[in-house]
Amino acid sequence: MIVFFNGKQPFYNKLKNIIREKTEYKKSVLRNTYKHGNTYKNRTSRYNLCIRTLASFSILFSVLLQLFTFTSVYSAPYVDIAILNDDNEAVGPVVKSPSTILIEAERGQVLYHKSPNLKLHISVANKIMTAVLAIEKGNLESKVTISKESTSSEGSVLFLTVGEKYTVEDLLNAIIITNANDAAIALAEHIGGDIDKFVEMMNNKAKELKMDNTYFANPTGLSNENQYTTAKDIAILIRYALTLPDFNRIFSYRAVPWINSDGVELLTNSNQLFWSYDGVDGGKTGYNKIDKQSSITTATRNSRRLIAIVLDAPENDVFTDSATLLDYGFSNFKRGILVHKNQSLQSTMVGNKEINLISISDIYYTYPIGEDYVSNVEINVNKDLSLPILKSRVIGLARYTLKDGTVIDINLYPDTDVYPPENTYTKLVNKLKEYKDLYILVIFLLVTEILVIIYKIISKIIQYLRELKSKRMKTTEQS
Predict the structure, then answer these.
(1) Residue 394 domain-assigned?
(2) Does 36 share its domain with 159?
(3) Residues 127, 221 contacting (CB under 8 angstroms)
(4) How many angstroms separate the CA atoms of 223 and 214, rounded?
(5) What is the DSSP string of 16-74?
(6) Which of 30, 76, 284, 376 has its C-alpha lying 20 to 30 A from 191's C-alpha?
(7) HSE (side-chain half, CA atoms, 13 Å) at 128
């Protein structure tokens, strides 16, 4: 791997060239000093020493001068760096954003990241968390009355009117599609009772989701020096949010109508990739400073859904960076089967019988094209395997660890039923289980036959009683 700084040679090469040039110069000076032996033969050794000393100081001064000049050019804090492989090809996508992450939605595998743990002030995270809590704690059809505090919000607003009523879903549309801060405040008051309690709920939810580098100070995302999050934590949050059907639905809207006392207007999603990138099925944008913009974009192709998160990108590069990440993911990664259904992963002895441990379904994962991407496999079999063991019982676990750190656990099942050694009773039970339908038919026929016999017996008894009664009546009449 080779690192180039602004297309110039590395420091040690330049320094080596400088020293070589000055060494040659020194030799040249010394040769010129002594090349005419007769001319300088009678000069004193003190004069020769002075010449050599001046030449040495000249060389040293020149080297130091160029060294300091070199340092002033290459030690700047912001340097364009291109990391190349052996084929002089860029490793990973080149983006302008200081912090990005690309994940696949199914398992959360990280396909690319750039400074994912860099703490930044990202308003998009606040809006998403506010939406998540409103969906989980509220009723989308409930009416929310707009308060005076919500109408005094700064930044992006819909100019809501005090006393007006909107459904929770209307306000969710407003904060997800247009970042309306007045709608976010209204939802926070409705769900939490007041802003402080709602912010506490936001931070508790962040802890629950293990967003370890996130702290919320308000539901809107307006600037607050105590507020921060990271690309990695936002990836955790958005992936969780997308498991909520209502959030996923609203997140996919390009535009929705907004009805208020002034009439109807159209709320349009500001994520431009909805109209320029194939497969986009979700998006949200936001910023605190116009020159530092953030976006979250999801796109699906060939049953693969990717999530591109771009934070604090230059205004003209935020969507280019997002498209670059998605292109990289779709072009360089593939979704395939890690373990096939009924594939035997290990065998074990149960009693005196060997059984295979299998997965009962196909297990999928995402991997770089041309690489299996598996770094480790562990298989653990339960120690207490008391009989009987049925095919529906989990008796082991296969843990696959991918090179990006993703852990995939697969339950293992026996490929056959195993019963205890048979005695007369167990043989009978097993036979009954094996020929269940036949035995049911036999039992039905036996019961039917018994009922027929009972019917005949009862009929005979009734007939006998009737005959006996008839004889008695005749005897009585004769007497």
Answers:
(1) yes
(2) no
(3) yes
(4) 14
(5) HHHHHHHHHHHHHHHHHHHS-HHHHTTS-HHHHHHHHHHHHHHHHHHHHHHHHHHHHHH
(6) 284
(7) 29
pTM of the model: 0.69
pLDDT, one tens digit per residue, over 88-137 is 444 689 999 999 999 999 999 999 999 999 999 999 999 999 999 999 99
Residue 475, CA atoms < 13 Å, CB-side half-sphere? 6
For residues 307 and 116, the answer to whether their CB atoms sit within 8 Å is: no
Amino acid at 153: S
What does the DSSP assignment read for 117-179?
Answer: T--B--HHHHHHHHHHHHHHHS-TT-EEEPPHHHHT--SS-----TT-EEEHHHHHHHHHHS-
Measured distance CA(389)–CA(408) in Å, rounded: 25
Residues 129 and 144 occupy one common structural domain: yes
pLDDT (tens digit per residue) in 189-222: 999 999 999 999 999 999 999 999 999 999 999 9
The size of the chain, in residues, is 479
Q: What are phi and psi of 413, to 5 degrees?
A: -125, 155
Residue 93 lies in a domain: no
Within a domain: 211: yes
Radius of gyration of the chain (CA): 40
259: its two tokens: 């009805």
The CA distance from 245 to 282, in Å, is 13
Could you say which of 319, 335, 351 is where a domain stops? Answer: 335
Peptide bond into 388 cis (omega under 30): yes
**Contact predicate 59/26, CB 8 Å:** yes
What are the tokens at 195? 């802003």
Angle in degrees, 0-180, between the axes of helices 424-434 and 436-478, rounded to the nearest 10: 100
Which domain covers residue 367, as residue numbers? 340-414
